[in-house]
Amino acid sequence: MMDTRFDELLDFPTYQTFKVMGVADDALPNEVVSCLQRLAPGDYSPTIKPSSKGNYHSVSVSVRVTSKEHMEEIYTELAKIELVRVVL
Question: How far apart are CA 62 and CA 44, in angstroms?
Fold first, then answer.
């Protein structure tokens, strides 16, 4: 379980942009969005940027989060995706 201070820094509900760094694979954005759809259903249009060498992609998505626990759960679940390396 994470021990964050999101509740001290943010007023919920709020929109948070999650930046997911992962392997440059066509499946990455779909896996990120399907994970988010489970946790925070919405209409997502991720922004995808390749790394300078093209080995990794960064997928940025703005998500409506309703609580500190909700935000922590999203970070935890996104990090479990096999192609994902870092969630910011």
Answer: 8
**Given its phi and psi angles, is residue 27 left (phi above 0), alpha (psi -120 to 50 degrees) or beta?**
alpha
Give CA 59 to chain center in angstroms. 8
CA dihedral 27, 33, 37, 41 (to 10 degrees): -160
Calpha distance 53→82 (Å, rounded)? 21
Per-residue pLDDT of the chain (88 residues; tens, 9 = 90+): 667 787 787 889 999 999 999 999 999 999 999 999 999 999 999 999 999 999 999 999 999 999 999 999 999 999 999 999 999 9
Q: How many CB atoms neighbour CB 20 within 10 A? A: 27
0.85 surpassed by pTM: yes
The count of residues in the chain is 88
